[in-house]
Design a protein that fits this description.
Helices cover 39% and strands 19% of the residues. It is of the alpha/beta class. The protein has a seven-stranded parallel sheet, sandwiched between helices. It has a four-stranded mixed sheet with strand order 6-15-10-13. Strands 8-11 form a two-stranded parallel ribbon. Helix 1 links the parallel strand 1 and strand 2. It is globular, with a radius of gyration of 19 Å.
């Protein structure tokens, strides 16, 4: 950490951002959070300074970068709901792409050295055989994936002609919550399977839908690479250390390299909750690949990342504990 430097975390009051903020603070980083609180929660950042505002507000960003002596940005702020991005693409291009362009312009002008960018496996679309490496073709099939890929391109091109360097982390299926129970996946109207299943388990939802039971997978349901949010947050700190040590700009997948089917996830939830979930089987959704698994050697070999929570029961247990917490103390 450079003396007097600050890490700006955009979207730091959201799900993944707040877990990353916890880890940054725990190791003594100076952190400031920018979040418009449209989906984030003020209480998720604790005592960390929180500026309520939008990444696309250039005057606000200029002042923030100057006032806090920011030399690093970890950029999470984005809309992330895939079906919504299909029905309202300009919302996603506006917030995810145009606002990021404005942020990068301000960062470049202010001399920000490092950017760690929250990207997504959605940039791959439907990769052959359900396995995606960083060299796989990028062929997003929705505006969410495209908006993130465009931001990756902007970062690539900007860093090629300025002193700025970046790491883009392409997430697979993020799940779980803080193992100490301080914060968690609190998103309202969530669409992620583990979160939804745990909401059913605690009675917050009457049932969950399984979309597609006739895929060419071992049990007919979709297979995904689920990564615990704490392990994913650690990858951002590894990326930051890599850049500070002089590492070149890099794109890396963040996943465990193996997957679980929908039925396997639900079986874990039922086992840990000690009850049977109410499940409705529905037709496949358009655009859902049968399987999507990360080839994630680069994040280990180049960034020195070693997952500590690679276990579906651990992911489910921390998710379920957080749902029970929210029942007692709603956010």
């Amino acid at each position: 950490m450079t003396q007097g430097s600050t890490v700006l975390v955009t979207g730091g009051a959201g799900y993944i951002g707040s877990h990353t903020v916890l880890q940054l603070v725990a190791r003594g980083e100076r952190v400031v959070v920018l979040d418009d609180l449209s989906t984030g929660f003020r209480q998720a950042v604790g005592a960390v300074p929180l500026i309520v505002g939008n990444v696309g507000d250039r005057a606000l960003i200029d002042a923030l970068l100057s006032d806090h002596k920011v030399d690093t940005i970890i950029h999470f702020a984005a809309h992330t709901i895939v079906p919504e991005s299909v029905s309202n693409p300009l919302k996603y291009y506006g917030n995810n792409t145009c606002a990021t362009r404005s942020l990068l312009a301000a960062a470049s002008q202010a001399g920000v050295k490092h950017v760690v960018f929250s990207s997504t496996a959605a940039v791959y679309g439907m990769p052959a055989a359900g396995l995606a490496s960083e060299e796989s073709p990028t062929a997003p099939i929705n505006a969410y994936g495209t908006s993130k890929l465009m931001s990756e391109w902007m970062l690539r091109d900007l860093c090629a002609v300025t002193p700025m360097r970046h790491v883009a982390l392409r997430y697979f299926n993020v799940a779980g919550s803080d193992t100490q129970g301080r914060i968690g996946q609190s998103t309202r109207a969530a669409t992620l399977l583990v979160k939804v299943a745990c909401e059913v388990a605690v009675g917050k939802r009457p049932f969950l839908s399984v979309f597609g039971t006739d895929y060419p997978t071992p049990d007919g349901t979709g297979v995904r690479d689920y990564i615990h949010v704490e392990d994913l947050a650690r990858a951002h700190l590894n990326a930051l250390d890599y850049l500070r040590a002089g590492g070149k700009s890099l794109t890396a997948n963040c996943g465990y390299g193996h997957g679980y089917s929908v039925r396997e996830v639900l079986s874990s939830v039922e086992k840990i909750a000690g009850l049977k979930l109410s499940v409705r089987e529905e037709p496949r959704r358009a655009g859902d690949p049968p399987a999507l698994i990360a080839k994630a050697d680069k994040v280990r070999e180049v960034l020195g990342w070693h997952p500590q929570l690679d276990d579906i029961d651990t992911i489910v247990r921390t998710s379920l504990e957080w749902e029970r917490h929210l029942q007692r103390e709603p956010w």
